Every structure is written in C-alpha cells, then in structure tokens.
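In the previous lecture we treated proteins in isolation. Real proteins rarely work alone, and many bind small molecules. This record shows how such a complex is specified: first the sequence, then the SMILES for flavin-adenine dinucleotide.
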Amino acid sequence: MPDFLTQARALLGPSHVLTTELAAYATDWRGKFSGAPLAVCRPADTAQVAALVKLCAACGLSLVPQGGNTSMCGGATPDDSGQQVVISLSRLNRVLEISPLNNTMTVEAGCILQNLQHLAAEHDRLFPLSLGAEGSCQIGGNIATNAGGVQVLRYGNTRDLVLGLEVVLADGQVLNLLKALRKDNTGYDLKHLFIGAEGTLGIITAAVLKLFPAPRAKAVAFAAFQTPQQALELLGLMRGAMGDRFTAFELMSDASVKLVQQYFPASPALFGQSHPWHVVMQASDGGAQAALDQAFETALESALERGIIDDVLLASSETQARELWMVRENISEAQQLDGANIKHDIAVPVSSVPAFIDEVLPLLQAAYPGVRPMIYGHLGDGNLHFNVSRPAGMSTPDWQAETDRVNVIVLDVVARMQGSFSAEHGLGQLKNHEMALYKTPLEIDLMRRLKNALDPKGLMNPGKLLPN
Ligand SMILES: Cc1cc2nc3c(=O)[nH]c(=O)nc-3n(C[C@H](O)[C@H](O)[C@H](O)COP(=O)(O)OP(=O)(O)OC[C@H]3O[C@@H](n4cnc5c(N)ncnc54)[C@H](O)[C@@H]3O)c2cc1C
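The predicted 3D structure, ligand included, written as tokens:
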C-alpha cells in the first residue's frame, strides 16, 4: 500500500495535508459528533481532488467531503477510526463564469454561499438560496444536502437551482455535466443523483447555477397571532394577494422568539404584549417600491380586519427589515447557546401543519411534563424545525438519553401524515438509522443498489445517509 501521507503531500504540497490541530474539521457545528481523521486534505482544483480520490482508493482509505461544516446532522464529520481522510473543498473557490444573458453562474464547489449571493447582486441578478449558515456554508455542501432555506416558497430547493454539475466519482474519474441548459432530455438526468447524496456517491467540484432578475422592491413584515391555523390562513391570503411576489413565510413560536431575545439582547423590540405565534414574511418584485408596499399593506390590513392576525410590524427601512429577519435567523444559534435540545426537521403537507402541532404537543407534554418545544421553520413549505428542549430541572445527559423516545413520539405522527422525517438538513450520521423505520425496504434497497453501483468499495462518506 502506498504511504498515503507522503503521496498526498507530494500531490497537494505539505501545507495542504493537515495532521494536527484538526478540531475544526473533526467536530460538527452542533458539537454533537467528533472524529479522528487520518488527515485533512485541502486540494486546490478538480484535478487534485480526482488524484486524491484515486490515492485514497489505492490505500483503501475512505473519505469525507467537507464544505463549510455547518451540517445539522454530522454529515461532514469523520469517524474515530483514524482511517478516514477529510477532503476540504474550501480552496476550490473560483467563479468560472457569470453570464447575465444566460442567467447562470458557473462556480467551484468551495464558494461560500453568501459570496455567490453578493456576486449575483453585483451583476444585477439574484441567487435566491438563503439560509442561516450562508456566511460559512459552501455551495458544494448546499448541493450535496439539497439545502432549502427561506425562499423555497418562491424559488424551490437547491435542486431547482442547479443546471449542471462536475463530480469526481469514487474511482477518481471526473464526470463533467457542466452544461447551462434549461432543457436536456437525453436520458437519465445524472446530476440529480449527486444532489442531496451527502457526499456518498461522489465529490461535487463545480456547478452551473440559475440566476434570477434582481428584485428592485422588497417588503418585510413581522406578524403576531394566536394559532398555527391562523398562520395558514395568513399564508393563503398573502399568496392570493401577492402571487409570485410572495417569497418567504417563516413561522416562529413565542418560545423561540423569546429565546432569541434572551441570547441576543440587541434583537429588535417587537410587540407590547406576548402572542403565541409569529411569522416573518417577505415579498419582492422588479417594479416600483410604492406599488409593492401598497399591495403588501392592503393585504396585511385585510388580515387584521378579518382577525387573522393580532398585530403586525412593517419594516420601514432595509435596516429594520434585516433586524426583523435576524430574529428568525438567530433561533438556531440561540438554541445552541441554550444547551441540548432534540431536533427534528420534519415536513408534512402544508395544510396539515396545524393538525401536526395540535397532535404532537399534548403527546410530548404527557410524556415529559414541562417540556419546552421550540417550533419554527418554513411554514410555506410545510417544513418545521420542531426542536424539543428539556423540561426545567432535567439534566442535559438525562434529556439526551430520551432522544429515541422523543423521536418516536414526533416522527410517528409525521409518518401518519405522509410526511418526511428529514425535510432539508439531510440524514448524515444523526438520522440515517431512521431510514429503516420510515422508508420502505424497496426504497432502501434501490438506494443501496445505486450506492454499490457508483461506489462499490464503499469509500465515499461511509456511515452517512444509508442505515448501517
Ligand atoms: C445556523 C444554521 C442554519 C441553517 N439553516 C438551514 C436552512 O434553513 N436550510 C437548510 O437546508 N439547511 C440549513 N442548515 C444546515 C446547513 O447549513 C446546510 O445543510 C448546508 O447546505 C451545508 O453546507 P456546508 O458547506 O456547511 O456542508 P457540510 O456541513 O460541510 O457538509 C454537508 C454534507 O454535504 C457533504 N458535502 C459537502 N461538500 C461536498 C461536496 N463538495 N461534494 C460532495 N459532498 C459534499 C458532506 O460530506 C456532508 O455530508 C443550517 C445550519 C446552520 C448551522
């Protein structure tokens, strides 16, 4: 067997094969998983990724692709065998082409999402993927997890934003599908195999992404109301009034808003009194600001008159809009600061969200009196982050020991409602075992056959996505 470290150093340069101070690469964002990689390798381009994959295969070493390492389910964290190589894509951060005429940009996988948003804006275009981790997650990681975020309502998931891909396969071959085509019915659309595959089928090295016209006008509001059913009514009303201009609709329970106010004291003042539920919502279009404002305000006035909402705050400046959005964006971090919670990233049909909440909350309270559910998420997509914080007085380890039981309570209701036990974060090593409970044997068998066909030696991110 070739000496991996010697050959990797010859290939990438010694400073790009790290064997010490690996904590940032070996531990996940939530601090839930930690591994002991043999090395962290930082290739500079696709050719180096391909050579590295071939070297890993020759040495019988498995590899873990890593982007911004913001996975919520330990997807990019190596195991503790000392036999895995983390392949960090962060040096593949070049923009290969931006074409306003095609409304596309072709970029390497290690580009930070926020940088791509800014780049699109510089060219008077919009790249609509937007999520709390956008300052550090990479487009390759977004594609590998088929990330969702706050604008799925209007623009779809990452899968809907990708026109072409370049992928290094498990045997080191480079599959070049970097086409900027809107139509191409020439057999199986192979790129979709790698989108959402969480690095288990290949390493994404570049992508052609869709761009949209840059919005000229934007309206943002924060509303308060009593029940999730009212949120659904508000969603229907706003979509009816604003049509395609309505781009985001994010639900937050009062408990999650209060948690943000506790850990981020600079959060904006909201309403004079408490309300059980809130949403932050956004509309945008290419027309005049005044016209958008008028349609938005008229729709919200109608919601107030009909008693759907109790109160509403309209952002009167870009700064205020950003502040209102930060309440939503800071929930994950506030929860992180607050300590252990049992996270669920579920989806049910949009119309079933209120029934789901009504059914699960009493079950949880009965099993764990005083439990603190922190519910928030992308209501317009039927996707809730249904996170459950421990009852006051229970220790963190005791609460973590309840994870499987809490999961069964929540996820069995999801399954009964024909929902998904992982809507946008993927499975990683946190939720892969739940496949066996909530996917059919036929689905799992087909996935295993695909995995075996593309990665017969099982070297690509083993232990993730598929049940062990
Ligand atoms: C505060 C916060 C908010 C978040 N909000 C959202 C949200 O609203 N919506 C949402 O969908 N997610 C959200 N996430 C989860 C996470 O940010 C996304 O899953 C993101 O897409 C991961 O990107 P990354 O570059 O950090 O990938 P990593 O965490 O590095 O990797 C994620 C997975 O992709 C694989 N991978 C990474 N790069 C590649 C590549 N180039 N080729 C092949 N496989 C690769 C890894 O092996 C791993 O399995 C949030 C996370 C945080 C911390």
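Summary for your notes: The domain at 339-424+434-438 is CATH 3.30.70.2740 (Alpha-Beta Plaits). Residues 167 and 175 are 5 Å apart (CA to CA).
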